[in-house]
Amino acid sequence: MAKQSKVKRVKSHAALPYAEVSSFMAEVRKREGVAARAFEFAILTAARTNEALGATWSEIDLDAAVWTIPADRMKARRDHRVPLSDAAVALLRSMPRDQGSDFVFISPMAKGKPLSNMALLATLKRMDRTDLTAHGFRSTFRDWAAETTAYPDAVVEMALAHAISNAVEAAYRRGDLFEKRKRLMADWAGYCESGSQRTAEVVPIRA
User: Fold this and answer.
1) What digits encode the pLDDT tens for the residues 166-195?
2) What percent of the chain has pLDDT over 70?
3) pLDDT at 135 over 60
4) Is residue 48 annotated as a catalytic residue, yes or no?
5) Is 162 a catalytic residue?
6) Contact residues for 145 (Cβ-Cβ < 8 A; gap 6+)
7) Candidate CATH numbers 3.40.50.300, 3.30.450.20, 2.30.30.40, 1.10.443.10; the one for domain 18-193
8) How would you classify residue 77: left for phi > 0, otherwise alpha for psi between -120 and 50, otherwise beta?
9) Catalytic residue chosen out of the listed positions 30, 75, 113, 126
């Protein structure tokens, strides 16, 4: 009897349906604390959890509204520019700065250190949403872009900082489609706020 070939199963991350993202964001914005702001930032930028939690002020240019993640923090091992929406910039401006640390989202439990992934899981637990994962919101963003917008796949995939598997396409794609991604992220931020007040203020972090 021939041996059955083993199929490697890819574990998917529990994701929120995109139609529910605005109500979820409204709930996150009601919560105080660094973890809630970090969660909101990760969703607005569609960044991986470790990329968002490890963000430093030296990587961010608020005036230019761009966050440049260095190659050594990226899965693809190359610098990644993230266009920041008005909502993301407003959130960052609400964050207090610690003179002793360059991290944006500093753990209240470990002086000068960034939040751990457990902080976002704890936020979901407090919201009674243990059915979700923080990473799953990247899938929420991907589904929203694919099903409700006309943005090309290349723009969306680059926003997610996915590696280009096709060697020929990778060789010819020299730019990072920044201007197109800038419009995409602005539209995403608008969608995230569409179910709540578009001018809602970010809850400030107590210094």
Assistant:
1) 554 554 456 789 999 999 999 999 999 985
2) 82
3) yes
4) yes
5) yes
6) 151, 156, 159, 184, 188
7) 1.10.443.10
8) left
9) 75
